[in-house]
């Protein structure tokens, strides 16, 4: 499963539902977009190290941004930005999931539900 940024935020805030989802999955992935968002949200070097330590400890694999992911994300933005408010960052996460045949775990169902070729696991924190 690939995890959206919000799942990490919920886990950090103490959500047991988010923690169970992360702990319960054998193969854990995140997009490079999510990785960058997690680092960008850190206030200092100590939080950077905490984020990296968490990802390493749970053996997350960061999936790179590829040409196919970029193309698919652009298609998603063209198709869903006006009708559903899909933002580029969410399009990249969705495209990473779809291109790697992974279910996306998120609590932001409204951002991703319109995308037909995307499998979703909705977190209810």
Set out the fold topology.
Blueprint: E1 2-3, H1 5-12, H2 16-24, E2 29-31, H3 32-40, H4 45-57, E3 61-63, H5 67-84, H6 88-99, E4 104-106, H7 109-112, E5 120-122
Parallel strand pairs: 1-4, 2-3, 4-5
Please give a structural write-up.
- The protein starts with a strand and ends with a strand.
- With about 120 residues, the protein is mainly α.
- A 3-stranded parallel beta sheet has the order 1-4-5. Strands 2-3 form a two-stranded parallel sheet.
- The protein has a single domain, classed as 3-Layer(aba) Sandwich (Rossmann fold), CATH 3.40.50.
- The model has no long low-confidence stretch (mean pLDDT about 95).
- Helices cover about 60% and strands about 10% of the residues.
- The chain is globular and about 40 Å long.
- The chain has helices at about 5-10, 15-25, 30-40, 45-55, 65-85, 90-100, 110, and strands at about 1-5, 30, 60-65, 105, 120.
Biggest sheet, strands in spatial order? 1-4-5
H and E string: EHHEHHEHHEHE
Q: Helix fraction?
A: 55-70%
| CATH homologous superfamily (4th level) name | 5'-nuclease
Overall number of structural domains = 1
Large-scale geometry: globular
Strand content: 5-15%
Count of DSSP helices? 7
Main sheet overview: 3 strands, parallel
What are the key terms here?
3-stranded parallel sheet; mainly alpha; Rossmann fold; globular; 125 residues; two-stranded parallel sheet; single chain
């Amino acid at each position: 499963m690939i995890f959206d940024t919000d799942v990490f935020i919920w886990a950090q805030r103490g959500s047991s539902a988010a923690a169970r989802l992360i702990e319960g999955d054998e193969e854990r992935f995140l997009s490079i977009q999510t990785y960058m968002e997690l680092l960008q949200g850190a206030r200092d070097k100590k939080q950077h190290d905490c984020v990296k330590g968490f990802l390493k400890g749970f053996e997350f694999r960061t999936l790179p941004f590829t040409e196919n992911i970029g193309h698919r994300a652009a298609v998603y933005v063209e198709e869903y930005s006006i009708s559903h408010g899909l933002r580029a960052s969410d399009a990249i996460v969705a495209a990473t999931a779809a291109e790697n045949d992974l279910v996306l775990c998120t609590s932001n169902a409204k951002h991703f539900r319109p995308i037909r070729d995307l499998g979703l696991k909705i977190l209810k924190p």
